[in-house]
Design brief:
Strand content of chain A: 5-15%
Largest sheet of chain A: 2 strands, antiparallel
Strand order of the largest sheet of chain B: 3-2-4-5
Number of strands of chain A: 2
Radius of gyration of chain B: 15 Å
Distance between the termini of chain A: 25 Å
Structural class of chain A: mainly alpha
Mean pLDDT of chain B: 87
Distance between the termini of chain B: 35 Å
Number of strands of chain B: 5
Oligomer: heterodimer
Shape of chain A: elongated
Order of helices and strands of chain A: HEEHHHHHH
Shape of chain B: globular
Strand order of the largest sheet of chain A: 1-2
Radius of gyration of chain A: 29 Å
Helix content of chain A: 55-70%
Low-confidence stretches of chain B: 1-7
Largest interface: A-B, 69 and 53 residues
Strand content of chain B: 15-25%
């Protein structure tokens, strides 16, 4: 009986010792991650300062007030603890595509029963409409060849938000076709704000109208996309210094380190909870 | 007995940030920033004119929101609302102190490490 008690107490002591060593390891990992985060933030802030030096002030005045997060956190519940203090969660980064319209295009291409080549062609056309800078470079072939396929590909499931985005993109395509047919089918390729090279005045006007509409549509389609890729960079102008892009990548790395830190802190929670429970038991006993 | 890990949020939750303007700008560049339909932001820019009450209100608001998983708070800002952070016991949102722009990270100020020190008896 005494031997059994001794054995169980020895086992308990071993378990407590293991737990203590694990908690110290977790603590060390936490401190190492904090040091890494400090270096990454320092580097990111240095790049931001360089960008400020070359392009002027960078601050709240340039923030987009309709910004949407492109980086989110997926939360996993782990552990079987029933108490709030002992429960554990894991965090993972989820990155979304920069443009909701691009998401719609790729989703439509995946859902379509068409052969891959036609699906790629269709999605290319839709993506061209939703290009980040709003300027579409299409040829008549793209518009005419995909006409039938596009309509067939429009059979979609109900209640999908992406279908609305795709519909909007197709509306722009139809308007483009109408404008082209109205002006005698001028070549649209390479159309800029000032109209095409050597085109007639009317087709030049139509092209500039078209380009303005597409710019508006591209801006509307891409404005809700928020960060990632080039989203937040565009708040600070079309041409941004390389230092700003470096700052962006630096802070993205820092963000991943932050989530690792959060996961490490979550690992410490049950250990803190069990240690505080053990301390509470010993308190009244002494 | 360990439960199987399951994803509690399929759509993804947000990160909130309370820090100086440059740090916030950096994290916004990384894609963290979000303004919802009610014009509620998930960040607070703290400068010399920001009152402690404003910081407290923002922190309480972020910790009460159901769509925020992690709150990043710079250590300099955290030291102004230490009592509020100490009272925060929920696992979600997780509160993480990050180094400030002007001051390096001080482990002795970190609320999590303070708690570990207290429990382990390292005084």
């Amino acid at each position: 009986m005494a031997a059994a008690e001794k054995a169980s107490s020895a086992t308990d002591l071993d378990a407590a010792e293991r737990e203590f060593v694990e908690s110290l390891d977790t603590l060390q990992e936490y401190l190492q991650l904090q040091a890494r985060l400090q270096d990454q933030l320092k580097q990111g802030l240095m790049n931001l300062a360089r960008a400020k030096y070359s392009m002027g002030p960078i601050g709240q005045a340039q923030y987009d007030m309709d910004m949407k997060a492109s980086v989110r956190v997926a939360v996993r519940s782990e552990g079987a603890s029933t108490t709030c203090s002992g429960s554990r969660f894991g965090f993972e980064i989820q990155k979304q595509l920069p443009s909701a319209t691009a998401t719609a295009a790729t989703a439509a291409a995946r859902r379509s029963p068409q052969p891959p080549a036609a699906a790629v062609g269709r999605s290319n056309v839709v993506e061209k409409v939703a290009a980040a800078d709003g300027i579409v470079r299409c040829t008549d072939d793209d518009l005419l060849d995909n006409d039938g396929d596009e309509d067939d590909g429009l059979s979609r499931e109900e209640g999908e938000e992406e279908e609305g985005e795709l519909k909007e993109a197709n509306e722009f395509l139809r308007r483009m076709r109408m404008l082209l047919s109205g002006d005698g089918g001028g070549d649209v390729g390479g159309g800029g704000v000032g109209g095409g090279d050597g085109n007639s005045a009317s087709s030049g006007t139509a092209e500039s109208k078209m380009t303005r509409r597409l710019r508006r549509g591209g801006r509307n389609g891409g404005g809700g996309g928020g960060g990632g890729g080039g989203g937040p960079l565009h708040w600070f102008g079309v041409l941004v210094p390389p230092a700003l892009k470096d700052a962006q990548s630096g802070f993205s790395a820092a963000l991943e380190t932050c989530l690792q830190l959060a996961n490490t802190a979550q690992r410490m929670r049950p250990q803190l909870a069990s240690s505080s429970a053990g301390a509470a038991e010993e308190g009244p006993a002494t | 007995m360990a439960k199987n890990a399951n994803i509690t949020s399929a759509d993804g939750m947000l990160l909130a940030v309370l820090a100086d303007e440059d740090t916030i700008t950096g994290f916004l560049l990384a894609g963290v920033g979000n303004v919802d339909l009610r014009k509620k932001k998930n960040y607070l820019v703290v400068d010399s004119k920001t009152s402690v009450r404003t910081i407290e209100q923002a922190f309480k608001e972020f910790s009460a929101r159901e769509d925020i998983a992690v709150i990043l708070i710079s250590q300099q800002v955290a030291s102004q609302i230490r009592h509020v952070i100490a009272a925060h016991n929920k696992p979600i949102p997780a509160v993480l102190e990050i180094p400030s722009k002007d001051c390096p990270y001080d482990p002795s100020q970190d609320s999590l490490l303070k708690r570990v020190k207290l429990i382990a008896g390292f005084n």
